[in-house]
Amino acid sequence: MKDRIKIGLVGVGKIARDQHIPAIDGHPGFELIACADPNARIAGIAHYQSLEAMLDAEPDLAAVSLCAPPQVRFSQACVALAAGKHVLLEKPPGASVAEVAVLAEVARERACSLFTSWHSRHAPGVKSARAWLANKELVTVMVRWKEDVRLWHPGQDWIWQPGGLGVFDPGINALSIVTRILPRPFFLKAADLYTPSNKHNPIAANLDFRDDRSTPIRAEFDWRHGDEEIWEVEVTTTVGVLRLAQGGKHLQIDGKSWDLGEEREYSSLYERFAELISDGASEVDFSPLQHVADAMLLGTRYSTAPFFH
Ligand code: NAP
Protein backbone atom coordinates (compact mmCIF):
# COMPACT_ATOMS: atom_id res chain seq x y z
CA MET A 1 0.00 0.00 0.00
CA LYS A 2 1.18 3.53 -0.81
CA ASP A 3 2.61 5.49 2.11
CA ARG A 4 -0.08 7.41 3.92
CA ILE A 5 0.19 11.20 4.09
CA LYS A 6 1.18 12.12 7.63
CA ILE A 7 -0.96 15.04 8.70
CA GLY A 8 -1.18 17.38 11.70
CA LEU A 9 -4.25 19.24 12.96
CA VAL A 10 -3.85 22.81 14.17
CA GLY A 11 -6.63 24.11 16.43
CA VAL A 12 -8.42 21.30 18.27
CA GLY A 13 -11.79 22.98 18.73
CA LYS A 14 -15.37 22.22 17.73
CA ILE A 15 -14.87 21.63 14.03
CA ALA A 16 -11.66 19.63 14.45
CA ARG A 17 -13.42 17.26 16.85
CA ASP A 18 -16.80 17.10 15.10
CA GLN A 19 -15.54 16.67 11.55
CA HIS A 20 -11.80 16.68 10.81
CA ILE A 21 -10.72 13.89 13.14
CA PRO A 22 -13.41 11.43 11.96
CA ALA A 23 -12.86 12.37 8.30
CA ILE A 24 -9.07 11.88 8.53
CA ASP A 25 -9.52 8.61 10.45
CA GLY A 26 -11.91 7.40 7.76
CA HIS A 27 -9.59 8.20 4.84
CA PRO A 28 -7.10 5.44 3.96
CA GLY A 29 -4.64 7.94 2.48
CA PHE A 30 -4.09 10.05 5.63
CA GLU A 31 -2.57 9.33 9.02
CA LEU A 32 -3.14 11.84 11.83
CA ILE A 33 0.14 11.92 13.79
CA ALA A 34 0.10 15.21 15.72
CA CYS A 35 -1.93 18.17 16.82
CA ALA A 36 -1.12 21.73 17.88
CA ASP A 37 -3.33 23.75 20.20
CA PRO A 38 -2.49 25.91 23.22
CA ASN A 39 -4.56 23.65 25.47
CA ALA A 40 -6.76 21.04 23.80
CA ARG A 41 -5.46 17.55 23.10
CA ILE A 42 -6.52 14.47 21.12
CA ALA A 43 -6.19 11.20 23.01
CA GLY A 44 -3.38 9.04 21.64
CA ILE A 45 -1.97 11.75 19.35
CA ALA A 46 1.23 13.75 19.98
CA HIS A 47 0.35 17.21 21.29
CA TYR A 48 2.23 20.50 20.87
CA GLN A 49 1.29 23.93 22.09
CA SER A 50 2.05 25.61 18.78
CA LEU A 51 2.36 24.83 15.09
CA GLU A 52 6.05 25.78 15.23
CA ALA A 53 6.73 23.25 18.01
CA MET A 54 4.85 20.57 16.08
CA LEU A 55 6.85 21.19 12.90
CA ASP A 56 10.17 21.14 14.81
CA ALA A 57 9.38 17.84 16.50
CA GLU A 58 7.65 16.01 13.62
CA PRO A 59 9.82 16.17 10.48
CA ASP A 60 7.75 13.40 8.84
CA LEU A 61 4.64 15.58 8.63
CA ALA A 62 3.68 16.15 5.01
CA ALA A 63 0.49 18.16 5.50
CA VAL A 64 -1.42 20.27 8.00
CA SER A 65 -5.07 21.23 8.41
CA LEU A 66 -5.47 24.71 9.87
CA CYS A 67 -8.61 24.75 12.04
CA ALA A 68 -7.82 27.55 14.50
CA PRO A 69 -9.81 30.81 14.28
CA PRO A 70 -9.25 32.74 11.02
CA GLN A 71 -7.25 35.56 12.60
CA VAL A 72 -4.16 33.30 12.79
CA ARG A 73 -4.73 31.48 9.47
CA PHE A 74 -2.28 33.52 7.38
CA SER A 75 0.69 33.39 9.76
CA GLN A 76 0.20 29.67 10.35
CA ALA A 77 -0.13 28.93 6.63
CA CYS A 78 3.08 30.90 5.93
CA VAL A 79 4.98 28.92 8.57
CA ALA A 80 3.66 25.59 7.25
CA LEU A 81 4.35 26.42 3.59
CA ALA A 82 7.85 27.69 4.45
CA ALA A 83 8.44 24.24 6.00
CA GLY A 84 7.30 22.62 2.74
CA LYS A 85 3.96 21.26 4.05
CA HIS A 86 0.73 20.94 2.08
CA VAL A 87 -1.97 23.10 3.67
CA LEU A 88 -5.72 22.72 4.04
CA LEU A 89 -7.34 25.99 5.18
CA GLU A 90 -10.64 25.72 7.06
CA LYS A 91 -13.15 28.33 6.00
CA PRO A 92 -12.81 31.26 5.85
CA PRO A 93 -9.37 30.90 4.22
CA GLY A 94 -8.14 34.16 5.76
CA ALA A 95 -8.98 37.26 7.71
CA SER A 96 -8.63 39.34 4.54
CA VAL A 97 -8.93 38.63 0.84
CA ALA A 98 -5.45 39.79 -0.12
CA GLU A 99 -3.71 37.50 2.33
CA VAL A 100 -5.22 34.45 0.61
CA ALA A 101 -3.84 35.64 -2.73
CA VAL A 102 -0.41 36.01 -1.10
CA LEU A 103 -0.64 32.44 0.22
CA ALA A 104 -1.45 31.13 -3.26
CA GLU A 105 1.77 32.67 -4.53
CA VAL A 106 3.83 31.31 -1.61
CA ALA A 107 2.38 27.81 -2.17
CA ARG A 108 3.32 28.00 -5.84
CA GLU A 109 6.90 29.03 -4.98
CA ARG A 110 7.21 26.24 -2.42
CA ALA A 111 5.62 23.63 -4.75
CA CYS A 112 3.09 22.78 -2.00
CA SER A 113 -0.64 22.15 -2.36
CA LEU A 114 -2.87 24.85 -0.90
CA PHE A 115 -6.57 24.06 -0.49
CA THR A 116 -9.10 26.74 0.43
CA SER A 117 -11.68 24.27 1.69
CA TRP A 118 -15.35 25.26 1.60
CA HIS A 119 -17.08 22.38 3.33
CA SER A 120 -20.62 23.41 2.35
CA ARG A 121 -19.71 22.98 -1.31
CA HIS A 122 -19.32 19.28 -0.51
CA ALA A 123 -22.89 18.98 0.79
CA PRO A 124 -24.67 16.29 -1.21
CA GLY A 125 -27.11 18.57 -3.05
CA VAL A 126 -24.59 21.08 -4.37
CA LYS A 127 -23.19 19.14 -7.33
CA SER A 128 -26.66 18.26 -8.67
CA ALA A 129 -27.90 21.81 -8.12
CA ARG A 130 -24.98 23.20 -10.09
CA ALA A 131 -25.57 20.74 -12.93
CA TRP A 132 -29.34 21.47 -13.06
CA LEU A 133 -28.82 25.25 -13.05
CA ALA A 134 -26.02 25.25 -15.63
CA ASN A 135 -28.29 25.96 -18.61
CA LYS A 136 -31.18 27.75 -16.83
CA GLU A 137 -32.26 31.36 -16.97
CA LEU A 138 -32.60 32.79 -13.48
CA VAL A 139 -35.52 34.93 -12.29
CA THR A 140 -34.67 35.42 -8.59
CA VAL A 141 -32.45 33.90 -5.93
CA MET A 142 -33.29 33.94 -2.22
CA VAL A 143 -30.85 32.76 0.46
CA ARG A 144 -31.89 32.41 4.11
CA TRP A 145 -29.20 31.43 6.64
CA LYS A 146 -30.57 31.87 10.14
CA GLU A 147 -29.56 30.20 13.40
CA ASP A 148 -29.07 30.82 17.10
CA VAL A 149 -25.53 32.04 17.77
CA ARG A 150 -25.71 30.86 21.39
CA LEU A 151 -26.38 27.32 20.22
CA TRP A 152 -23.78 27.15 17.45
CA HIS A 153 -20.98 29.31 18.90
CA PRO A 154 -21.25 29.02 22.67
CA GLY A 155 -18.59 31.11 24.41
CA GLN A 156 -16.57 31.79 21.22
CA ASP A 157 -15.13 35.31 21.49
CA TRP A 158 -13.10 35.27 18.26
CA ILE A 159 -16.27 35.43 16.12
CA TRP A 160 -16.96 38.93 17.47
CA GLN A 161 -13.41 40.24 17.01
CA PRO A 162 -11.93 41.78 13.82
CA GLY A 163 -11.42 38.98 11.28
CA GLY A 164 -13.99 36.77 13.02
CA LEU A 165 -16.77 37.74 10.55
CA GLY A 166 -19.71 37.70 12.98
CA VAL A 167 -22.83 36.35 11.26
CA PHE A 168 -20.79 35.96 8.07
CA ASP A 169 -18.99 33.04 9.75
CA PRO A 170 -22.00 30.81 8.92
CA GLY A 171 -23.22 33.14 6.14
CA ILE A 172 -20.05 32.53 4.15
CA ASN A 173 -21.12 28.88 3.88
CA ALA A 174 -24.23 30.04 2.01
CA LEU A 175 -22.06 32.26 -0.18
CA SER A 176 -19.75 29.33 -0.89
CA ILE A 177 -22.77 27.39 -2.16
CA VAL A 178 -24.28 30.14 -4.32
CA THR A 179 -20.91 31.03 -5.86
CA ARG A 180 -20.68 27.34 -6.80
CA ILE A 181 -24.16 26.65 -8.15
CA LEU A 182 -25.23 29.83 -9.96
CA PRO A 183 -24.36 29.77 -13.63
CA ARG A 184 -23.13 33.39 -13.78
CA PRO A 185 -20.94 35.46 -11.46
CA PHE A 186 -22.63 38.13 -9.35
CA PHE A 187 -21.67 41.14 -7.27
CA LEU A 188 -22.93 43.08 -4.28
CA LYS A 189 -25.14 46.14 -4.86
CA ALA A 190 -26.10 47.01 -1.28
CA ALA A 191 -26.15 45.59 2.24
CA ASP A 192 -27.57 46.33 5.68
CA LEU A 193 -25.41 45.24 8.60
CA TYR A 194 -26.81 45.00 12.15
CA THR A 195 -24.11 45.06 14.83
CA PRO A 196 -24.60 44.79 18.60
CA SER A 197 -23.51 48.04 20.25
CA ASN A 198 -20.83 46.17 22.28
CA LYS A 199 -19.40 44.10 19.38
CA HIS A 200 -17.26 44.60 16.29
CA ASN A 201 -19.07 42.28 13.87
CA PRO A 202 -22.67 42.03 12.61
CA ILE A 203 -25.20 39.72 14.23
CA ALA A 204 -27.43 39.98 11.15
CA ALA A 205 -27.03 41.12 7.55
CA ASN A 206 -29.20 41.51 4.46
CA LEU A 207 -27.35 41.50 1.15
CA ASP A 208 -28.59 42.43 -2.32
CA PHE A 209 -26.56 41.13 -5.25
CA ARG A 210 -27.06 41.30 -9.02
CA ASP A 211 -25.53 39.46 -11.96
CA ASP A 212 -24.86 41.05 -15.36
CA ARG A 213 -28.51 40.36 -16.33
CA SER A 214 -29.81 42.23 -13.26
CA THR A 215 -31.14 39.05 -11.62
CA PRO A 216 -32.03 39.93 -8.00
CA ILE A 217 -30.04 37.73 -5.63
CA ARG A 218 -30.84 38.34 -1.97
CA ALA A 219 -29.26 36.83 1.12
CA GLU A 220 -30.54 37.18 4.68
CA PHE A 221 -28.26 36.09 7.51
CA ASP A 222 -29.42 36.23 11.12
CA TRP A 223 -27.91 34.89 14.33
CA ARG A 224 -30.91 35.88 16.48
CA HIS A 225 -33.04 33.03 15.17
CA GLY A 226 -34.99 30.59 17.31
CA ASP A 227 -34.58 26.87 17.91
CA GLU A 228 -34.88 25.62 14.35
CA GLU A 229 -32.14 26.68 11.94
CA ILE A 230 -32.92 27.75 8.38
CA TRP A 231 -30.09 27.13 5.94
CA GLU A 232 -31.66 27.32 2.50
CA VAL A 233 -31.18 28.60 -1.02
CA GLU A 234 -34.11 29.00 -3.41
CA VAL A 235 -33.48 29.67 -7.09
CA THR A 236 -36.45 30.54 -9.29
CA THR A 237 -35.75 29.96 -12.97
CA THR A 238 -37.95 30.40 -16.06
CA VAL A 239 -38.62 26.63 -16.05
CA GLY A 240 -38.84 25.68 -12.37
CA VAL A 241 -37.82 26.33 -8.78
CA LEU A 242 -34.74 24.72 -7.21
CA ARG A 243 -34.53 24.58 -3.43
CA LEU A 244 -31.53 23.49 -1.39
CA ALA A 245 -32.33 23.07 2.29
CA GLN A 246 -30.50 22.01 5.46
CA GLY A 247 -27.25 23.57 4.28
CA GLY A 248 -27.28 21.68 0.98
CA LYS A 249 -28.24 18.25 2.32
CA HIS A 250 -31.69 18.30 0.70
CA LEU A 251 -32.49 19.22 -2.89
CA GLN A 252 -35.95 19.79 -4.31
CA ILE A 253 -36.94 20.82 -7.80
CA ASP A 254 -40.52 22.01 -8.18
CA GLY A 255 -41.33 20.45 -4.81
CA LYS A 256 -39.95 17.00 -5.71
CA SER A 257 -37.08 15.72 -3.54
CA TRP A 258 -33.98 14.26 -5.15
CA ASP A 259 -32.26 11.18 -3.78
CA LEU A 260 -28.74 12.36 -2.93
CA GLY A 261 -27.26 9.57 -0.86
CA GLU A 262 -25.50 10.04 2.46
CA GLU A 263 -24.04 13.28 3.81
CA ARG A 264 -20.21 13.17 3.74
CA GLU A 265 -18.99 16.76 3.46
CA TYR A 266 -15.68 16.39 5.29
CA SER A 267 -14.88 12.95 3.84
CA SER A 268 -15.27 14.50 0.43
CA LEU A 269 -13.10 17.45 1.51
CA TYR A 270 -10.23 15.11 2.45
CA GLU A 271 -10.65 13.13 -0.78
CA ARG A 272 -10.15 16.38 -2.66
CA PHE A 273 -7.13 17.32 -0.52
CA ALA A 274 -5.52 13.92 -1.22
CA GLU A 275 -6.19 14.38 -4.94
CA LEU A 276 -4.59 17.85 -4.95
CA ILE A 277 -1.48 16.56 -3.15
CA SER A 278 -1.20 13.61 -5.52
CA ASP A 279 -1.57 15.89 -8.58
CA GLY A 280 0.85 18.52 -7.24
CA ALA A 281 -1.97 21.06 -7.56
CA SER A 282 -3.67 23.73 -5.47
CA GLU A 283 -7.29 24.87 -5.28
CA VAL A 284 -7.63 28.48 -4.22
CA ASP A 285 -10.96 30.30 -4.40
CA PHE A 286 -11.71 33.30 -2.24
CA SER A 287 -14.89 34.49 -3.98
CA PRO A 288 -17.15 33.88 -0.91
CA LEU A 289 -14.74 35.94 1.24
CA GLN A 290 -14.67 38.65 -1.43
CA HIS A 291 -18.46 39.05 -1.12
CA VAL A 292 -18.15 39.39 2.66
CA ALA A 293 -15.41 42.00 2.23
CA ASP A 294 -17.65 43.88 -0.24
CA ALA A 295 -20.48 43.83 2.33
CA MET A 296 -18.12 45.38 4.87
CA LEU A 297 -17.17 48.00 2.21
CA LEU A 298 -20.65 48.88 0.95
CA GLY A 299 -22.93 47.99 3.85
CA THR A 300 -25.06 50.49 5.73
CA ARG A 301 -24.43 49.94 9.43
CA TYR A 302 -27.06 49.84 12.16
CA SER A 303 -26.34 49.52 15.87
CA THR A 304 -28.54 47.00 17.72
CA ALA A 305 -28.99 45.76 21.27
CA PRO A 306 -25.77 44.68 23.04
CA PHE A 307 -25.03 40.96 22.93
CA PHE A 308 -24.00 38.85 25.90
CA HIS A 309 -23.27 35.10 25.69
P1 NAP B 1 -13.22 26.79 18.32
O1 NAP B 1 -14.17 25.75 18.85
O2 NAP B 1 -13.11 28.09 19.03
O3 NAP B 1 -11.80 26.09 18.20
C1 NAP B 1 -10.63 26.76 17.83
C2 NAP B 1 -9.45 26.07 18.51
O4 NAP B 1 -8.24 26.66 18.01
C3 NAP B 1 -9.47 26.27 20.04
O5 NAP B 1 -9.13 25.05 20.69
C4 NAP B 1 -8.39 27.33 20.22
O6 NAP B 1 -7.80 27.29 21.50
C5 NAP B 1 -7.42 26.94 19.14
N1 NAP B 1 -6.45 27.97 18.83
C6 NAP B 1 -6.56 29.31 18.98
N2 NAP B 1 -5.44 29.92 18.56
C7 NAP B 1 -4.59 28.94 18.15
C8 NAP B 1 -3.29 28.91 17.63
N3 NAP B 1 -2.60 30.05 17.41
N4 NAP B 1 -2.72 27.71 17.31
C9 NAP B 1 -3.41 26.57 17.51
N5 NAP B 1 -4.65 26.51 18.00
C10 NAP B 1 -5.25 27.69 18.32
O7 NAP B 1 -13.59 27.17 16.82
P2 NAP B 1 -14.29 26.24 15.71
O8 NAP B 1 -15.78 26.38 15.83
O9 NAP B 1 -13.69 24.88 15.71
O10 NAP B 1 -13.88 27.04 14.40
C11 NAP B 1 -12.56 27.04 13.91
C12 NAP B 1 -12.61 27.34 12.41
O11 NAP B 1 -13.42 26.35 11.78
C13 NAP B 1 -13.27 28.70 12.10
O12 NAP B 1 -12.63 29.30 11.02
C14 NAP B 1 -14.70 28.33 11.73
O13 NAP B 1 -15.27 29.24 10.82
C15 NAP B 1 -14.46 26.98 11.06
N6 NAP B 1 -15.66 26.10 11.08
C16 NAP B 1 -16.38 25.92 12.23
C17 NAP B 1 -17.53 25.14 12.20
C18 NAP B 1 -18.37 24.87 13.43
O14 NAP B 1 -19.48 24.30 13.29
N7 NAP B 1 -17.92 25.21 14.61
C19 NAP B 1 -17.94 24.54 10.99
C20 NAP B 1 -17.15 24.69 9.88
C21 NAP B 1 -16.01 25.48 9.93
P3 NAP B 1 -8.39 28.26 22.67
O15 NAP B 1 -9.85 27.97 22.75
O16 NAP B 1 -7.61 27.82 23.87
O17 NAP B 1 -8.10 29.67 22.19
Count of individual helical segments: 9
Any idea what the shape is? Answer: globular
Distinct small molecules: NADP nicotinamide-adenine-dinucleotide phosphate
Report the CATH C-level class of the largest domain. Alpha Beta
CATH architecture call of the largest domain: 2-Layer Sandwich
CATH topology of the largest domain: the name is Dihydrodipicolinate Reductase, domain 2
Side-by-side strand order of the widest sheet: 14-13-12-11-7-10-9-8-15
Relevant CATH superfamily of the largest domain: Dihydrodipicolinate Reductase, domain 2
Query: pLDDT average, as an integer?
Result: 97
- The helix-strand sequence is EHEEHEHEHEHEHHEEEEEEEHHE
- Tell me the major beta sheet: 9 strands, mixed
* Low-pLDDT regions: none
Tell me what portion of residues adopts beta-strand conformation: 25-35%
Terminus-to-terminus distance: 49 Å
How many β-strands, per DSSP? 15
Estimate nothing, just give the exact number of structural domains: 2
